[in-house]
Amino acid sequence: xxxxxxxxxxxxxxxxxxxxxxxxxxxxxxxxxxxxxxxxxxxxxxxxxxxxxxxxxxxxxxxxxxxxxxxxxxxxxxxxxxxxxxxxxxxxxxxxxxxxxxxxxxxxxxxxxxxxxxxxxxxxxxxxxxxxxxxxxxxxxxxxxxxxxxxxxxxxxxxxxxxxxxxxxxxxxxxxxxxxxxxxxxxxxxxxxxxxxxxxxxxxxxxxxxxxxxxxxxxxxxxxxxxxxxxxxxxxxxxxxxxxxxxxxxxxxxxxxxxxxxxxxxxxxxxxxxxxxxxxxxxxxxxxxxxxxxxxxxxxxxxxxxxxxxxxxxxxxxxxxxxxxxxxxxxxxxxxxxxxxxxxxxxxxxxxxxxxxxxxxxxxxxxxxxxxxxxxxxxxxxxxxxxxxxxxxxxxxxxxxxxxxxxxxxxxxxxxxxxxxxxxxxxxxxxxxxxxxxxxxxxxxxxxxxxxxxxxxxxxxxxxxxxxxxxxxxxxxxxxxx
Amino acid sequence: xxxxxxxxxxxxxxxxxxxxxxxxxxxxxxxxxxxxxxxxxxxxxxxxxxxxxxxxxxxxxxxxxxxxxxxxxxxxxxxxxxxxxxxxxxxxxxxxxxxxxxxxxxxxxxxxxxxxxxxxxxxxxxxxxxxxxxxxxxxxxxxxxxxxxxxxxxxxxxxxxxxxxxxxxxxxxxxxxxxxxxxxxxxxxxxxxxxxxxxxxxxxxxxxxxxxxxxxxxxx
Lengths: 482, 220
Description:
heterodimer; A: mainly alpha; 19 helices; 0% strand; B: mainly alpha; 7 helices; disordered C terminus
């Protein structure tokens, strides 16, 4: 290899960072929307190269089989969202909700967010990971508040306060992990390098690790949106621009989940520490049931799907908490499917809200008549997210339920109860929105059906047929997760 | 570590907890800011002392950031904002001073009990430093819970963050402390001062968080 050898990790970090700087100075929004798309696509290609050439790990950077899944999914959804965003913002500009200055800021922040998320995913250093997640929080806070309505400001403020407290707790947990590592691996950089930690963790003091994990789970769990700590999530989803709702649900929640998983692995490797699984499974099931009940009372379409994200993050955290090859496999699959489906739904919902000029569920009726493409996309998306066969989420939910039945049958009762509850709520809401006498709205929508079709197509394909290499890969990662 | 330097570390960390209590019962905004500046000075001294004891020069940077940014720039900036908006009135508490102080005492007791059990005997300084740091963190959180006013929420958050910096400085040889303190300063400076107080004041003419509660969830 030459001195100019292709380095995927540098690319997926440098590209968004450079694009963010560039976009901050590009005045024409059409150009910047296009640059945004191209850059996101190039980042996705660079991330896909990890399958072929696995980058070397260092004290700061780590690419292993676990985070490749996250990185590729992350960059893919980031790319499709940028395509959706281009058509979404054109409309927002038309109706005057956003100005070109806002858009410059918006595009720069979008790329900065991608940089921060990629950094969090490849970070081998737990301190660096923390800094990256903090940065991702900051950029999303700025974007949630971009409409500057009272509601948007409140949402951003709430998100900022709760997110910061979560981030602060996570830092305390990170410091405690370092304190536990110090007597064993020595002072300095090594005490924060995850690959060093995982190798030496059996010798760490278990009591300190336990305490650290509680802080980390609460801290990063706030960002995952787990039930008692979720209050920021629905507001942030509902009041920000819809592309940001898609990125929050589809990506940022996963990044926080990834951080939790890394620390779960540390705890698992120490025989004397508490088992992290039951803690996670409990939080997961509480989130699932709580969110399922909350779904019934939603009147705002974006809030409805925000609560559905809490529900699904609950299922995923529950699956990883159960552990074992099958449940981990189901968790990974469910995470992938949820990211794809939920962002597709938000793409659809963004266009629906623009076409009907409202986010109120009561004012959205008869979509299949007035906007057939959007209406049927919404139906397909909701069927997918509610877990109907033959779509991908059915497969993963089925695996979660069956692995739970095999190992802890009494836990399967609340699980299935929560799933059915959520299913009922979603179908109930869908019926009114999709059918009946259409409410007035714009005739034409500028929707670009491509990203929606790509996501839902993948979800459908995964439900019908999972390619064996993908299954083998997920099984391998599931085994790594114990 | 000699007995004296150990005692000085303790003294400074203990003083930080004490100032956290002072913050809890301030009922004027200007007084609150002054006490917060005092806390930042104490933090800066404590971190500088750790830098000296551990012979870790990079911690002096953290100490300098704490001094310049949190003891001077932020309080002065907030002072100006409050003066300009004319909101230098009493701070309303959700919970009275008495119960708040009792809750604070309980939190300190909790953190001492938790930390002393968890960290091994061998590392007495780190152990007690962490107990103090956790107390400051919990007291900051308590302040965020009991105050309605947006400015005092921010002050609560910053004092919470002071506790984290104390913990990071006390963890001997911890890497990235400077970066983390910079990241935190950015968090506080950028979002809070620059964007939110300005925008909130623009909209509501008050920085009372209750004005925000007009909009709650999707009740109609």
